[in-house]
Amino acid sequence: MSGHELSFSERRDWLRLIRTSTVGPVAFRELLRRYGSAGAALEALPELARRKAKMVIPPLEDIEREMEASEQRGIRLLCAGEPDYPYYLKAVDPTPPVISVLGNVDLLHKPCVAIVGSRNASAIGLRFARQIANELGEADYTIVSGLARGIDASAHAGALETGTAAVLGGGIDHIYPRQNGELYHEIAARGVLVSESPLGYRATARDFPRRNRIVSGLCLGVVVIEAAERSGTLITARFALEQNREVMAAPGSPLDPRTRGCNRLIRQGAALIENSRDIIDVLDNVRPPVFEEDEEHYSAPDINWDDIQDDIASAREILLALCSPTPTPRDEIIRQSGIAYPIAAAALLELELFGEIIVEGDGRLALNL
């Protein structure tokens, strides 16, 4: 592990910046690249906020209150680049700038494997998830899932003795679904809970893809057990592929709609797994991700932003016209625009901050209709 522990004021600035409305992980990264630090970015934001009323910078008191409440509950706030920030998650693009962790953070530094699947799973699917979670745990893997009903809950239960991590869509203090309340408390006591949402936040539908990208991002690979052809589980599998993680799936009957997604993944190249040994054989060949920079250190570029405001304004119009309601890769939009990268990146940053575009969990851009 590398990096350094942030000071209180640095951590507060990171938290305040990511809690600013319209600032997501991509905007956070671009603001640090543009201004060199979270503190400098916060000093610059009021000028941008005056131009668009949608941006709301939280009061300092609110951020310090969240930090104090987290400390009182034993919750750690980890910033990207700090020594205890999970290595594999740091390699995700875009990296979640700040995560809340409750429980044994050391479990996130062991080799992790995600087990995900249908909420309305069959009895045999639930038994299989619990069995392989237990066996992988005995082989010293941390089992990661999303605390949902069905396969997720069975995987967590199977790994309680050896170590499991639950990634939440809402705040780390929000139990969802309520029926998994007992499991939530057992994981808090014996495993680890992870969230990038603020304390007290109740998840909405659009928060679960963000959660899914963290589930896959923490892991060497993702195992899918029972997934319909259109399901959130397949979103996790897609994130895993985009993050260069291994995707594995358990085959099922062609007559059971709950396994059609798994069978399709296998046809598309996912590893077919029938037991925990199959999974270990796949993961034994995985190489750790490599990334170039420490996220906590940025040097502001030698650009006078005031001198190129007209260029950025023109670029905003061109780039906005290239966006559509369908999420599109950021690099594709920049390439089609023909605009130099520094100006295009600055223009897209402002479009996100102004709330005119939405950045999906995987970095793709879409119009905010």
Q: Can you give me a brief rundown of this structure?
A:
The protein has three domains: 8-84, no CATH class; 104-283, 3-Layer(aba) Sandwich (Rossmann fold), CATH 3.40.50.450; 305-367, Orthogonal Bundle (Arc Repressor Mutant, subunit A).
In helices, the fraction of residues equals 40-55%
Main sheet properties: 9 strands, mixed
Q: Determine the oligomeric state from the structure.
A: single chain
Q: What is the overall silhouette? A: globular
What is the CATH class of the largest domain? Alpha Beta
The count of strands amounts to 11
Count every helix, treating DSSP H or I runs of 4 or more residues as helices: 15
Radius of gyration: 21 Å
**Average residue pLDDT:** 91
Would you write up a description of this structure?
This protein is α/β, with parallel strands linked by helices and 369 residues long. The chain folds into three domains: 8-84, no CATH class; 104-283, Rossmann fold (3-Layer(aba) Sandwich); 305-367, Arc Repressor Mutant, subunit A. Helix content is 43%, strand content 12%. It is built from 15 helices and eleven strands. It has helices at residues 8-18, 25-35, 38-51, 60-72, 87-90, 123-138, 151-158, 181-190, 207-217, 232-242, 260-267, 276-283, 309-322, 330-337, 341-353; strands at residues 76-79, 98-103, 112-117, 142-145, 164-167, 192-195, 221-225, 246-249, 271-272, 357-359, 365-367. A nine-stranded mixed β-sheet has the order 1-2-6-5-4-3-7-8-9, sandwiched between helices. Strands 10-11 form a two-stranded antiparallel ribbon. Helix 6 (123-138) links the parallel strand 3 (112-117) and strand 4 (142-145). Helix 2 (25-35) packs across helix 3 (38-51). It is globular, with a radius of gyration of 21 Å.
